[in-house]
Amino acid sequence: MSPVIVWQPVLGVHRLLPEHRECSKLFGEERMSLKLFVKRTAPFSILWTLTSYLYLLALKKLTATDVSALYCCHKAFVFLLSWIVLKDRFMGVRIVAAIMAITGIVMMAYADGFHGDSFVGVALAVGSASTSALYKVLFKMFLGSASLGEVAHFLSTMGFFNLIFISCVPVILYFTKVEQWGSLSSLPWGYMCGLAGLWLVFNILVHVGVVLTYPILISIGTLLSVPGNAAVDVLKHEVIFSAVRLAATCIICVGFLLLLLPEEWDSVTVRFLATMADKKSEDHGEELTESSIHTRSRSRANGAISLPLA
To answer: DSSP per residue over 37-53, as a string?
Structure first.
């Protein structure tokens, strides 16, 4: 083998190493080891698995509309945790939004009384929103504004961890009698494969979409799931929503929209109102000028012109 053929792969490896190191921001400058891999990846994997599992359990107790509306409260939890842990800027309007989210949760639990499957479903959905908020705050703490390469490396690492460690969780749940399975032939493989595919697409769109587009678009997509699920529940399942549930859903959605306001929304609003006031005053001044010119032209047309004395 010639030295050139041996040297080219070596150059290729050295050229890729800096790029890989740049994308592995999650692991810092420490040397990769099994302990570091588990330490940095396990919290994200466990939180995301809990988010998904609690969400699916909540769907057994509540309608998809109620669960998706309650899940929107994760935005309020993210703000509160970021304010406490990450020392983000305090915003009064977001505190109001968080209070509205908590009010909606209480109303949703009160809709059928604080007992029974409804209350358990609300608790499961709120638990799913809470673990999702913890996941996002940890992601922001370790990665911050991640690049596309960092996000791809992070998702690959977490997928590898899930394959090794999380794959055994369903087996443990089965043998501990927490989950009951039928025969393999009776399982709805079509629905399960479809759900797994959609869940994969959702994860990729959420993580990559924030990098390639604006985060507000991803948040609006989450909010649009509420009327979408409501349409399916009404048209297909013929669900009749009570007034309390509708009010709770609307309060949570309004609070979610308030949380989407940018940090400089107050100064932007003041500048916009000042610009509108200046424009209105300029238009009013132009109208007065045009009115004065029109009055003078009418006076000339009526012959009201002063002639000099002889």
So the answer is: HHHHHHHHHHHHHHHHH
Q: How far apart are the first and last CA of the chain?
A: 119
3-state secondary structure of 158: helix
For the chain, strand residue ranges (E) read none
**129, burial (CB in 10 Å: exposed 0-12, middle 13-18, buried 19+):** buried
Contacts of 230 by beta carbon, 8 Å cutoff, 6+ apart: 65, 241, 249
Query: What is d(CA 35, CA 16) in angstroms, rounded to the nearest whole number?
Result: 24
How many angstroms separate the Cα of 183 from the Cα of each of 172, 180, 259, 300? 17, 10, 46, 100
Q: Are 150 and 25 in contact (CB under 8 A)?
A: yes
Instruction: Compute CA distances 190 → 116, 174, 196, 203, whole Å.
Output: 32, 21, 10, 20
10-residue block means of pLDDT along the chain (310 residues)? 38 47 64 78 91 92 92 91 84 87 88 77 93 91 78 84 87 85 83 89 83 81 89 88 89 89 71 75 62 57 45
- What percent of the chain is helix, strand and coil (3-state, nearest 5)? 80, 0, 20
Distances (CA, A) of 112 to 109, 119, 229: 7, 8, 20
Structure letter (DSSP) for residue 86: S
At 30, which amino acid appears?
Answer: E
Q: Put residue 187 in one of left, alpha, beta given phi > 0 → left and psi -120 to 50 → alpha.
A: beta
Question: What six digits make up the tokens of 78?
Answer: 């993210």
pTM beyond cutoff 0.85: no
Cβ partners under 8 Å of residue 210, min gap 6: 218
